[in-house]
Design goal:
2 copies of one chain form a homodimer.
Chain A (H helix, E strand, L loop, with lengths): L4 E5 L9 E4 L5 E8 L2 E8 L2 E8 L2 E3 L22 E11 L9 E14 L4 E10 L2 E8 L7 E7 L2 E3 L5 E4 L12 E4 L3 H10 L12 E3 L2 E4 L5 E7 L7 E6 L33 E6 L8 E4 L2 E2 L2 E7 L2 H6 L2 H5 L14 E6 L1 H5 L33 H13 L4 E4 L29 H10 L3 E7 L4 H18 L3 E5 L14 H16 L3 E5 L14 E4 L17 H4 L35 H10 L4 E3 L4 H6 L1 H9 L4 E10 L3 E8 L5 E7 L4 E6 L8 E9 L12 E9 L3 E6 L4 E8 L1
Parallel strand pairs in A: 23-24, 23-29, 24-25, 25-26, 26-27, 27-28
Antiparallel strand pairs in A: 1-7, 2-3, 3-4, 4-5, 6-11, 7-8, 8-9, 9-10, 10-21, 10-22, 11-20, 12-19, 13-14, 13-16, 15-18, 16-17, 17-22, 18-19, 30-31, 31-32, 32-37, 33-36, 34-35, 34-37
Helix pairs in contact in A: 7-8, 10-12
Chain lengths: 737, 737
Amino acid sequence: MRYCILFISCLLSSVMMATEVKSPNGHVVLSFTVENGRPTYSLTYKGREVVHPSHLGLELAKDKHASKGLEETDLMDGFTLLKDEVKEVDETWQPVWGENRNIRNHYVEYLAILPQVEYFRTMLIRFRVYDDGIGFRYEFPQQKNLIYFLIKEERSEFRMTGDHTAWWLPGDYDTQEQETQETRLSEIRSRMKEAVNWGNSSVAVFSPTGVQTSLQMKSQDGLYINIHEAACADYATMHLELVDQQTKALTTQLGGGSNAYTPNPKPSPYPLPQPFTFVSHLTPDATGLKGAMQTPCETPWRTVMVSDDARDMLSSNLILNLNEPCALDDTSWIHPTKYCGVWWEMIVGKSSWNYTDEFPSIKLDNIEWQKVKPNGRHAANNEKVKRYIDFASKNGLDQVLVEGWNVGWEDWANMWKRDVFDFVTPYPDFDIKMLNDYAHSKGVKLLMHHETSSSTQNYERHMEAAFNLMNEYGYDAVKTGYVGDIIPRGDHHYSQSMNNHYLYVVKEAAKHHIMVNAHEATRPTGLCRTYPNLVGNESARGTEYEAFGGSRPDHTCILPFTRLQGGPMDYTPGIFVTKLSEWSDNPSWARITIAGSLALYLTMYSPLQMAADLPENYEKFDDAFQFIREVACDWDESIYLEAEPADYITVARKAKGTDNWFIGGKCDENGHKTTVKLDFLDKGRKYDCTIYADAKDAHYEKNPQAYTITKKVVKAGDVLKLTEAPGGGFAVSLIAK
Amino acid sequence: MRYCILFISCLLSSVMMATEVKSPNGHVVLSFTVENGRPTYSLTYKGREVVHPSHLGLELAKDKHASKGLEETDLMDGFTLLKDEVKEVDETWQPVWGENRNIRNHYVEYLAILPQVEYFRTMLIRFRVYDDGIGFRYEFPQQKNLIYFLIKEERSEFRMTGDHTAWWLPGDYDTQEQETQETRLSEIRSRMKEAVNWGNSSVAVFSPTGVQTSLQMKSQDGLYINIHEAACADYATMHLELVDQQTKALTTQLGGGSNAYTPNPKPSPYPLPQPFTFVSHLTPDATGLKGAMQTPCETPWRTVMVSDDARDMLSSNLILNLNEPCALDDTSWIHPTKYCGVWWEMIVGKSSWNYTDEFPSIKLDNIEWQKVKPNGRHAANNEKVKRYIDFASKNGLDQVLVEGWNVGWEDWANMWKRDVFDFVTPYPDFDIKMLNDYAHSKGVKLLMHHETSSSTQNYERHMEAAFNLMNEYGYDAVKTGYVGDIIPRGDHHYSQSMNNHYLYVVKEAAKHHIMVNAHEATRPTGLCRTYPNLVGNESARGTEYEAFGGSRPDHTCILPFTRLQGGPMDYTPGIFVTKLSEWSDNPSWARITIAGSLALYLTMYSPLQMAADLPENYEKFDDAFQFIREVACDWDESIYLEAEPADYITVARKAKGTDNWFIGGKCDENGHKTTVKLDFLDKGRKYDCTIYADAKDAHYEKNPQAYTITKKVVKAGDVLKLTEAPGGGFAVSLIAK
């Protein structure tokens, strides 16, 4: 790692003139000042306004325990700028896995030291100014008058400069599995009701203008702006509440644990920001409070990415860079993974996770599993799992996920049932030893599954035994799940305590050399840099929704701009037989072509990639499946060739440790034509090029299985002209000769 | 174990006449009927009314998850009595430890099968009628229309027959450490404010007539009545709300997690019971709900004990009998324990639990303990612990409790700090290996201490490692503590989830052969029968309050009627130097004489007894200390010789496996004269009798250290005449010759 730290300036007076801090190339300029006692920042990009002057601060709760009897006061105003520091950092680091072998972390840091003189205490705000945006966080040094505090609400403002187009999800404390809405900012309020009812997720918004991050926007003059956060560990997940013309007061939920929008919120005592301002809104705990803090501590980084080129939104490493370096000494056991699994057939409804239908409900202690009546639909049985192992082995897939292997699925979700699973007892028809031995003999591993049913206390009680079982049988990765309401009741999926839980699981798993892929957990914020055994998350509407009514064709052209900013998604792509009625009773259908499905292995970066369809469905299209066999999922270099939110994404990636390249393009329902110049290939070298493209008449609904496979030899400088069908895409492999 | 099960009757019609069920000796008679669809019971004792007709039922929450979409309806009315069953059971069992070697469990059971026809579901109510009271519980068989349900409130009524005198604690979800109030029922409301402000506990009542159980009463015509519960495991602790002339509606707290009295409670839709009716009020979770249930399941037993002789309140085994038999196969490792400890000097304020005062707060991961500056007041240091080990060894005490041995005490309580302790890292001046080796070489064990600071999630995360550490160094008992507000926030000490936690700890400890003594946990309900490694609880105002301003002299003449009904208390008696200013800066003083302190080892039954004062204080009164050296804490037989709540208690106990008897008498601030007939001694045998009595001028305030020791030889039939000073008592040992 190369360090180049340059101290540029140090002591400034507390003059109220704004300080300007420029990014290394000067495109991004942060201004900071203290305005009437309130920390205030603004942002420009190439001289164009991105964030109008916006206040920063936190409202604290008047808790009996806070600050040892001192009546707690907010960290909102009364500040002076005592001192500030600027330094430039330029370093390069290597992720354990990722889109690039080397990541440059080059920024100018600005640290504002802000005493709140009346209360004899000091808060810091640290900014890092990159060429593609900024990050800032609050820091609270250990000090006599600020030891512990409770956050009523963080009030970080992001005042937008106009009525941007935004791609947003309704703000919810427990789910991110909605369809993305595309509206102007001024239309968020009027769209909210429809947005909440969209799809089949159970959504309860906290405000009629509440949205989630990562929030991708585009200004009317073509600036791409993204607001998210980085390194959210022991802190509540941030949402954003938009102040619009109708806003009378900001939503504050103190003292109530309801997750429904509060009709009579307690208003903040501070002036309402201007319209088009987003204000941070943290996920509450069961009592309505947003966070319990002990100094020294800091918030996560709040990020604003900006560019006039949409591709920069995708190639940015800003969020990873704002996270701490890897905390694990040994990462040799962490590896990219391609897998298939006993999963899609249950999602579709053809078979079941549970073993029996004999009882209205079960209690784990009271069932003699060998004696119960099987329902005949249990998927995770020895025969079927062996079939998947054989398939994986034959096709070079690393692992086989098996869901429904363990007892408890009979009544697992949304029953407020604490002791749902024990994570160690297989169903009678799942021979854990035999199947792992069989898999290992075929060069394949099984991938463990721990659905917690959001009964987190139960999971923590059993986790050590569950990980020991994994070590015993040779599992090295687990998919966890958090379906349903959180137990303890009143808590939310994105609260401080749940975020602590998710990371606790990752840390404990690391002790056992176990990789974690957490579903329904909070949206990622780049913590995979620090804990690279966090190889995946769901945290968005995944492929499973194609069996629950479907997702829009442009869905996968939005996710890389939003959900993927914080880390990889276990999107589980690869559905070849998109009309589920062809092999099940499910009338749903996936809105994608086969070539489009192949493209997702490139456009949706993840070190963990599933081939989600059934083996028999792949066997029908074995020539197309060749791409899945071949594609890498760890990279030396990635080049985003073109991108536009909700329209199209094209990316070329060089497989790690090889000279082979793969290119993928995915588009929305309108189709897309693209021309790829192969100028990134090694000069003077030839490549076997295989192009998996939509057939001329391909269409995500009418003709999804029409594809062509073209092989030729290419060299640097050649051009590929490709046509993506509506809801389609393409995939190219370039194998160095 | 001797079983005598007799089926007396079976099928009855749903006629609305009350069914009468008599206790084995006929003194207690239960009547049960269904009155306008509501289950209704009443109770008489020797023909006198004890409980007027009272309704039974539960209000359920209208939760989205309940009963799979069915709109949830209450289990309050619409019942018919389809069938009932009566049987008599007479069995005798042996506790692992206790007041008696054999316990007879003799009752007539009445089971009412109650379909709620409109909803096609059935609830059972099971009564057990003993000669000294009744127990009843609700049972919910597994059935299609009652699979899961959420309890809004249990509505078990106990309609008293008049304006009884009651000994009560203000109803609180988190503390039982108040002084007991003695008032008429009609005076509870007017006394509440004073009761809440009494002492220095932080009390937040749920209702102006809310009280805790066990509630001891005495009717104006001399009936002793006690309401409590038995076998409260995975269910919220029950409080009682009195309906009086001012009651407009019962308090129901649904949807709010506040622990303060709700000024505008949502009223129950059911008619208000008559004045002098107690109605059950369960401890809520963070969302205000009272319980999440899955059939088949049942509530704890609700108990009404009754007699015209106060001694029967103390000798009753009704609550133990209503608990399930021992669940542990091997109990050989469970033993009664007498102990001293590094504790009182910290309680008094002379030394500290924490090792350093260097930091405003600490984070366990960030401190290099070897490098911090000691505060010079840390009690749990090698030298001091060795002094206590030497003292224990010399005086036949089994164990030495050491509090403050582990890192984290610098800022441990009420800071909403989750990661407070790790339970495995000793302070630098506590050599855990050396001290345990030293203790074992002297025939003594150390007694572990796990203060959780009510951060239960943190404790559960570290518990297995903590118990392993105990096993490694040879600890076999742990004192746990739950000081401060519960984390996760919004939960309460007596909620369903916390009650589950306490029992989880006991069960996990049993796997490690560890005995548990849980402080600040919920009040016990006889679970020590099922899990006899639960050797103690605090759950009331203990001796520590003598250092916090003091407790009334009659306090220990009330506790056996109330707190001790459910199980032993680690009251930590034995303060000899009652004026704390004699050796510290603490102006508090214990309101007891030395002879009174000795009496507590008998009147406050526990298998775990502390000699709480400092070794040097005992050494000043070594002749009195002889009684503590000698007294047993496990018994073959116990005979309550006289008793009156808040006035006096005299008990004789035969030490287990010996022919030695011990007698103790404790009285209130008025003094007491007693005549003990030694007719329980073996005929024809002689006993060395040592009498530790208050001196003539002894007085709990003016002359607490004035005692006499008299030795003589006695035989069966002899009479001892004893005078107890104000706030005093006596203790007698009778060693068989």
